[in-house]
Amino acid sequence: MRFFVYIIQSEVNGSYYVGCTANLQNRFERHNSGRSKSTKRHIPWKLVYMEKLPDKSMVMKRERQIKAWKSRKEIE
User: Are 47 and 32 in contact (CB under 8 A)?
Assistant: First the structure.
């Protein structure tokens, strides 16, 4: 199975959201349809970064690493 860490950006206010999933297309559709509580206020979203990793533990570690940056400049 493949896993993804991804970054999406709101086209409304430019904010970023970092997440991970096994089904990137489905997850992205959930963000843009308002079915994701944490992102529904800033629809629409665009995918700005995606990284495929071989297992769940690696993708979760990478997600934590990106979230730890806490800086818009580092994410960009």
Answer: no
